[in-house]
Amino acid sequence: MRRAAVAIAAGAMAVSLAACGSAKESGDKADTTGSAKKGDDIKVGLLLPENATARYEKFDRPLIDKKVKELTNGKGEVVYANAKQDASTQNQQVDTMVTNKVDVLIVDAVDSKAIAGSVKKAKDAGIPVVAYDRLAEGPIDAYTSFDNVTVGKTQGEALLKALGGKAKDGQIVMMNGSSTDPNAAQFKQGAHSVLDGKVKIGREYDTKEWKPENANANMEGAISALGKDKIVGVYSANDGMAGGIITALKAAGIDNIPVTGQDAELAGVQRIVTGEQYMSVYKPYPQEADVAAEMAVALAQGKSLDSIAKDKVDSPTTKAVPSVLVPVVSLTKDNINDTVIKDGIYTVNEICAGKYKAACDKIGLK
Questions:
Q1: Largest alpha-carbon pair distance within the chain?
Q2: Residues 173, 179, 180, CA angle at the centre, nearest 5°?
Q3: How far apart are CA 269 and CA 22, in angstroms?
Q4: Which of 94, 188, 89 is nearest to 138 (CA)?
Q5: How far apart are alpha carbons 200 and 168 in whole angstroms?
Q6: Phi, psi (5° rounding) for residue 58?
Q7: Average pLDDT over residues 237-248
Q8: What is the sign of the dihedral through the CA atoms of 283, 287, 291 and 293?
Q9: CA 43 vs CA 46, 180, 245, 300: distances in Å
Q10: Which residues have CB under 8 Å from 43's CB, separation 6+?
């Protein structure tokens, strides 16, 4: 696992070097989809989907704000709004951004389909749109996220490795993300490509709004239907749901079975330290945020994305969207030092606070 993580991390570095050139270096070629050329005095609208998942407020928002200021000599302004998992609220927020005449929008959609009309409204007003983290529908100009199919494959491979010979002895439960999130479908696709035929899937759920409490209820239903002695592992699409799942497992007297996750949330990393959760997927948020900021500034300034976005991705409504897909790393207790600590996401003191210190000492995390 450690060797695989290093290989993937090396790939991430290569993508970073190839794709993350400064917007200032992207040339003066006008982008016909962008707004009229402007200088550094730009206004970037940033719309994030919810605040229940720790990453958005802790990482994405401040990282994007910092990068925009860096690229604009401190003159660029980020106007922020969070939809708190409400698609209608997010559509209203786009309307407000259009009324306030932002120069570019970065949108992480609550619902990729429901946002399409608002994306078109922004485009009609001459405001280019960067789809962030989720591939929004409508006439978007650019997209950056992680390789979401690879995320699912990474989770599935880790689960199979943890199960070993037990993969044939029992059943797993699959707890996928929200059906309104296109990323969730890609995670599921990747996971199934690895798990199908290798382990029996006893129950599978699409978890409404990614909520831990919904995952908890689903897991209780799976335990009741399958029997607690028949479940050998759980595929959880993210760390928040893993927390709800593990609570249900504990309540049923089930422990020592592998549970996957994603996002490397602090609580998830701490559960990995104690052994309650087997793994998470660490996604280098600084790289994704930097790319989004570079795309947004370039579009606002009427510049080409050619030196930033080397790939093209098709959405259901828009073909060949300039894109950057950032690689990911499988995070287990063996590589916490080499990932989230090395990258400055958390300190050892944060992870090992209070009741987690003994478990940290046991795995040599100091």
A1: 64
A2: 155
A3: 32
A4: 94
A5: 7
A6: -80, -35
A7: 98
A8: positive
A9: 10, 29, 41, 8
A10: 76, 77, 79, 100, 101, 102, 103, 300
What number is the average pLDDT over the span 329-355?
A: 96
Q: Is the pLDDT of residue 340 over 70?
A: yes
Residues 6+ apart with CB under 8 A from 60: 48, 108, 132, 133, 285, 288, 289
How far apart are alpha carbons 20 and 308 in whole angstroms?
6
Can you say whether the dihedral through the CA atoms of 64, 66, 68, 71 is positive or negative? Answer: negative
302: nearest Cα among 99, 98, 68, 39 = 39
Contact 266, 289 (CB under 8 A): no
The DSSP output letter for 31 is P
CA distance 127 to 139: 11
* pLDDT single digits (tens) 157-183: 999 999 999 999 899 999 999 998 999
Residue 38: what pLDDT?
82
User: Which residue, 57, 23, 62, is CA-closest to 142?
Assistant: 23
Bridge partners of 49, per DSSP, are none
Structure tokens at 1: 């696992």
CB-CB neighbours of 118 under 10 Å: 25
Q: What is the mean pLDDT of residues 24-51?
A: 68
